[in-house]
What does this fold into?
Amino acid sequence: MAKDNTKATPLMQQYNAIKAKYPGTLLLFRVGDFYETFGDDAIKTSQILGIVLTRRGNVASENSELAGFPHHSLENYLSKLVRAGQRVAICDQLEDPKSTKTIVKRGVTELVTPGVAYNDNILSQKSNNYLAAIYFEKNMLGVSFLDISTGEFHVAQGNAEYIDKLLQGFKPNEVIFQKSKRQEFVELFGDRFYTFPLDDWAFTGDYANEILTKHFEVTSLKGFGVDKIQVGIVAAGIVLHYLGETEHRNLKHISTISRLEEDNCMWLDRFTIRNLELVGSANENATTLFQVLDMTSTPMGARMLHKWIIMPLKDLKPIQERLGMVEYFTEHEDLLEEFLTHIKQIGDLERLISKVGLQKCGPRELCQLKKSLYHIESIKEISLASGNQFLMQLAENLDVCLSIREKLERELQQDPPALLIKGNVIAAGIHAELDELRGISGNGKDFLLEIQKREAAATGIPSLKVAYNNVHGYYLEVTNTHKDKVPESWIRKQTLVNAERYITQELKEYEEKILGAEDKIQQIEFKLYEELIHQVIIYIKPIQRNAFITAQLDVLLCFAQLAVKNHYVKPELNKSKVLDIKGGRHPVIEKRLPVGEEYITNDVFLDSDNQQIIIITGPNMSGKSAILRQTGLIVLMAQMGCFVPAKAATIGIVDKIFTRVGASDNLSSGESTFMVEMNETASILNNISDNSLILLDEIGRGTSTYDGISIAWAIAEFLHTHPTSRPKTLFATHYHELNELANTMGRIRNFNVSIKEIGNKVIFLRKLIPGGSEHSFGIHVAKMAGMPPKLISRANEILKKLEIDRTEGQSIKDSIKKVQNQAYQLHMFAVEDPVLVQIRDMLNNLDVNVLTPVEALLKLDEIQRIIKN
It folds into this structure.
């Protein structure tokens, strides 16, 4: 509804007009030295920031609420607002209030959203801040990911499952899509993302090609290798369109766009990324693989590690190159330390140069850029001197950007302030007028004293003094005693009782200089700094390349440090169908063990000819799930190019890892544990290949026992008898009946996780050994969890009854019914009391139909004696 501006002040009329252009956003309106919010925006702002909410006078309009904060606190408050999920429009004064007699011209200079942010207080250092766009077209979807803070721009297209996998891996902070596809988006990808729908008109191929070619200043997108994926191009065009809509125009740092190749990387579906807890976890206190592996020295290295984890390689050559470099660094620890010394000083060069492109780079950050280029030069020299072919090739691609580094060295102060407005940013000797003005501003008193001394000596007036007031400015004051000595060139300005005041041409010129010096200094510094930024912008591409190479080197050095610190070994990768891990360990669990406790290692061997599927049985909590997960993580780490937690590992390249581990109800979508389980398993079975690794944990436990066994059995058979593929599979189960499969299926083997029984105690040995297991020891686990003793005793009793009945040929259903009847008859007895158990058994064994009255009295007497004793 349009606002009634008839009674509003000119300021509020201006506010309402600007606010109307940005619906759904929180408008920060610059008024003098404050950013103000009004009405509903003020209520939200005060709640999020914890600042005071006031009302303007007695005004009862809808915008009478008011909340604001000083303009210099913008960065701190902006981050809180955006983290709270707000879209924030920053409205600044576009002219100097001194230069106008009417209301100051204002306009939105920036719109910050969760996916479009570069403020250090908003961003997480070690993860990207992706804005994603999705374009729906029939059975194909296009997707693009852009991080405005780094300039990374990726595009892809594929089916919904592939796009879902990318969303799970890239974890965008904001997703934009066609407004008409809102329901379809939620059905496919859920409601876990911050989203913003856009009008459908912008989602066209012609518009996308036009906006992309214009941005990259090319006639075709062929040079980027994305011209064939037209659906993806629409998504990429929408991202740039959205940046324009949010007032982000300076985008020189977005200098390239790359295609995400599905065929270049190992397939990790969204279930696997979640189940293996690679970069995130649904469990609040869980430690992820990323957290364990992250020994990087720079934020950009950490972000690169994140990408390597979710996109492991499946091409043997680059994997072996990475492994070779990690091995080289472990053998040359002095060189490793030398590299680390310089890399740690480079900082976040990637985001630093992006700020230059956005023209949001402060003087201190520009100084850091200069220092980073010195360390890049050192890395280049060390690499060339190493004699290592990989490092020498790396050095060839590093550009020390000597001319811009020298310019920064020459024109910037050595230790400039963080903000340009603070002044003293440009070095001396760069601009003559700036130096002169600084001299005037900084040495004003000395200059005036010099004039006073000189004129006193020339005129013979010893009491002459230079002073200042707001009416006449600077003046020379002469007492009446000496006024006859005043030169004719002096101009009289004021007569006092005892003295006369004069000005001179020199003093007037100096006054003009000193009074305008500060403003002129700021203007000149702003102009020179802007020119300097534009000079640095020319070097964005080579500096981005430096950042990319340094990040890669950082991750390889991280892997080498991990190998030494955690005793990882170099895996042997080949194109065979064999997976042979000796003494494997779970990289995350072993880091969380109590001090002094050693991890129990395990061997796993799988191939496509003899041991394709391993059925793992064993007690609950014995470590079945850990063995599955560690196998997947070891393979994944190896294909990242990282050494692995094992004594030895030979790995035939795996193209896909599938997991079905853990249970989680998707109740918000109306899906049960079993439905979630079946969806995930169906996804696996429909996408397997001959080089897949499948990790299945407790399939079928979400339904009845017989249904569960039947489904698990059928899945194992399906994987064994598949006509085109023999995926390597670990199948952990509590259904001991599956052990029978090994008798009829030639490539299925039974293993179990061993335990040791001492009296009524069970010790989990966590060791995988050949052969099946017949017990789950679930009651023992319940006891360890702290279940009441009464409950544990009753459970053991029921188990004993069921096992006896089973040996006598009774069905589980009949046995359970019998136990329930007994429980109903004696529910008043405390089951853990052995006397009452004895009495109960006596009563259960009586046949009242043949019992005489005398025998009944004798039985009662016997029961009384048992109770008394």
Remarks:
- The chain is about 45% helix and 15% strand.
- Residues 432-530 form a domain with the MutS, DNA mismatch repair protein; Chain A, domain 3 fold (CATH 1.10.1420.10).
- The two ends are 88 Å apart (CA to CA).
- The longest strand covers residues 748-758.
